[in-house]
Design goal:
CATH class of the largest domain: Mainly Alpha
Number of domains: 2
Strand order of the largest sheet: 1-2
Radius of gyration: 19 Å
Shape: globular
Strand content: under 5%
CATH topology of the largest domain: Serine Threonine Protein Phosphatase 5, Tetratricopeptide repeat
Helix content: 55-70%
Amino acid sequence: MKTCELCGAEIPENLKVCSRCGFEFQKEIRRDSRDRALLERNAGASVEEVRRDLRDRQAKLTAYMENLAAKSLAAEELSSLMDESLTYLQIPLVLGVEDELRLDGGEKEFVGLVTRCLGNADSLNGGPVGTAGTYIKLSNALQSLGETETAMLMIDKALLINPRDRAAQFGKAKLLFYAKRYDAAKKCLEKLIAAGDDDNARYLSELIEQLIGY
């Protein structure tokens, strides 16, 4: 038997489609969104070459951020630094249901460092200092690391900045889905679909309908 990663049902090994929710098991080997983003934004370079450059930049950013507590930065300056930190990691603004991020050990530590610095800055500022995109990208990274509660906190901050941000709305729906809060996720998706065509939202909505039977 094997476990469906979407609905948790126990399925015979020989089945390619979950009999409960319809998940296709061959999709377990999912595309790496970050590799795709790397190649799209660095034409002519290999993933390995770009990652080597990112590691060099990460070392410089890490050294700066570790000394952040001793520096006095305006909220705008700090926001710019956080955006740069997440952009250089090539974390996409929107992750589809089947997308995944693969972060190595050093990158995981760096995401943790960004999360702590941003959290401290938000507390001192009395509210979010980053852009909506800052919190969405950080939420995607945290979700990939299994830190669902903190990922949800980041999405809520993005929606506080811009309640109509479609990437943030989909990110919240996806987090609710993985938390098995299907009704709440479906309400988020219905708003997205009503506001315009959205393949990711429609696909996730159909999965939820199969799971809850309507």
